[in-house]
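Pilot study result, target chain (115 residues):
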Amino acid sequence: MSQSIQRYTELADLVLELQMAMQAAQVWETKAPSSEALASEQPFCIDTMTFEQWLRYVLIERFKEMIEQQQPLPQRCHISPMVEEAFRGLEPQKVKHLMLVCDALDRFLTRSSQL
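Predicted structure:
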């Protein structure tokens, strides 16, 4: 398997793990944001949707598209601090795995850009 294909496979695994971690933490948002909300230019669409919606309908969907179309991957990712802040009020045990997955995603994209 080429190094490029392996990177997309690794990212696909992390995206699936993120989805499962969100579901386990009960933060898997089922209400899709409007097209207007998705058009936000603010980081994390903070002005138009919840962070849970952004994770599911923006981040995960963009990564899926990149994987399917083998588009260039971001050179870095720093979502862990936002995840920590967004879920601060939840029980730590409930979001521990979600934090670990987001840390892994941050490290993977930063490491991948250095290859």
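One observation from the pilot: The chain is about 65% helix and 0% strand. A full batch analysis is planned for the follow-on phase.
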